[in-house]
């Protein structure tokens, strides 16, 4: 099976290790929901380790072994497009759930949306600022991507990527403060559950996107000049645009319309 030009994988312990880490993360989440006390500090760290190792292995194959040619790069880009498509379906389930409950509120919710007793977060305060911050980061990463594609000044690309990372971190800080000041929690009816799950998963995607862009920033900083055929910066920029678009729908549907 391995003796053909289309077999790109090799024997590795990482898939099994990652699967066990994800299982541990799911068990940790269930324990938190059921308020079971357990030491869960190392589980997220164990989950991060295989992804870092996997990323370093991909970098080694690309930059030092020369295994990633045009054909392999096209495969990676296509696989990443399928990944983003699956992420779109993932977030669509949250929007489906939100509109299902909002269009036909139950009598236990007071036949109203938002439910009686819940004061939604004003859409013109922190959410609006978050929207401006994220759209600004989309502009900066688009500008950096344009410079990257046409091989413009490297220093300007570094500054723009760093600016995008800073805006992403600022967005995460603002969202954390929004959660802390919220008058409702994830346990407060289907409104709270849908709100925190949808915006929380988007926040996780922002953190992942910031980490991807930080790896691009490090590559630029150490002098590894990627060509237009490399996929690293391309996929990171695609991912950031994806979280930008998802946030716009979250702001319009949950913050503005839901208010």
From TrEMBL:
Residues 2-259 form the Heme-copper oxidase subunit III family profile domain. The chain crosses the membrane at residues 12-34, 40-56, 76-101, 121-143, 155-175, 195-218, 238-258. One of its GO terms (biological process) is mitochondrial electron transport, cytochrome c to oxygen. Keywords: Membrane, Mitochondrion, Translocase, Transmembrane, Transmembrane helix. It comes from the Eukaryota. GO terms for cellular component: membrane; mitochondrion. GO terms for molecular function: cytochrome-c oxidase activity. It is found in: Membrane. The keyword Nucleotide-binding does not apply. SUPFAM superfamilies: Cytochrome c oxidase subunit III-like. Its main location: membrane. It is a multi-pass membrane protein. It holds the Pfam family COX3. Signal peptide: none annotated. Component of the cytochrome c oxidase, the last enzyme in the mitochondrial electron transport chain which drives oxidative phosphorylation. The respiratory chain contains 3 multisubunit complexes succinate dehydrogenase (complex II, CII), ubiquinol-cytochrome c oxidoreductase (cytochrome b-c1 complex, complex III, CIII) and cytochrome c oxidase (complex IV, CIV), that cooperate to transfer electrons derived from NADH and succinate to molecular oxygen, creating an electrochemical gradient over the inner membrane that drives transmembrane transport and the ATP synthase. Belongs to the cytochrome c oxidase subunit 3 family. This is Cytochrome c oxidase subunit 3. It comes from Chordodes sp. VVA-2019. The gene is COX3.
